[in-house]
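SEQUENCE-TO-STRUCTURE ENTRY
===========================

Backbone structure tokens: a row of integers, each naming the local backbone shape at its residue.

Task: work out the structure tokens from the sequence, keeping to the layout shown below.
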Amino acid sequence: MLKLKTIKLLILVFTFSLFVFSLKAVLAQETQTSGINLSLSPTYISLTTDPGKPVTGQFRVTNNNTSAEDLRLKLIKFQPDTAGRNPVVADIGKEDEFAGWIEYSPSEFTLNPSESRTIRFTISPPESASLGYYYGFLVGRESEAEGVEGGQAKIVGSVALPILLDVKSPNAKRELQITEFKTDKLFYEYLPTNLQLLVNNTGNVHVIPFGNVFIDSMLNQEIAVLEINPGRGNIIPNSLRQFNVIWDDGFAVTVPKEENGAVVLNDKGETEYETKFDFSKTDKFRFGRYSANLLMVYDNGERDIPVEAKVSFWIFPWKIVGGASLIVILALVGVVAIFRPVFKKLKT
């Protein structure tokens, strides 16, 4: 009898141990396959130096996950896409001699939850270097489980940090041109309006545009000032970059519909919208024709160069206008109906 109880106890202990081991394995797998959550500070780095003069920089990596991460740095470059519209990440090629100018440490490290690490690097351009060079770091997991190509571990779930290097040259040309300035629609029922600015860098060095859009009413009164490129994003040479400027300061504004903090989608997977009314902004009821006047500025290396553009659009809240008109008409009909007998008596 004692032996039977001992055997049952051993079986129970073995079963419980197997369950705990399996649970740990599942949790470990979930942790490994969970999304990476890293923060990089700053979000980009812009450096300027002279030919033959080294320049240093640094950035900070923070692990926002609840588990430790084994991370690796990979040097990449940024270049315009095939359409020349947006910068894209590309691998370093044999022709990219500037890749040999940079040294950084460490290249591999582990971060515990909420832990940060500072990465320092030095770029040593030769005397023959000039104009712009566009590096980048991919910071991500080193995982051979995802596959090995040519004996090299792949980086998965990475975040990118652009590094823009300007090596001073008398041949530097800093020039921006406005390719397009428009709204996404000519007529709006309510705000917001989306002002789309497309800028082309026709020079040979990266440039930062900045400035404002001034909104004027039909009476030529300035009623809003909007900032363009508040994040001070660069435009690399021979590429286009689009900036969206949103005007949403008004009494009636169309916004994405939300339920329980999540955006509501229709049967087609499209975002549903609703109109919200802010009665603290009744003085900002938008109606009629408006003009958006753009004043963009960039530094050409000697002075600030202003560039201007203008676009017009209409806001016609037909539901509000129609409802108000109907109320007025009904009120007038009522007044006429009430006072018609009085007028008849006065005539008689």
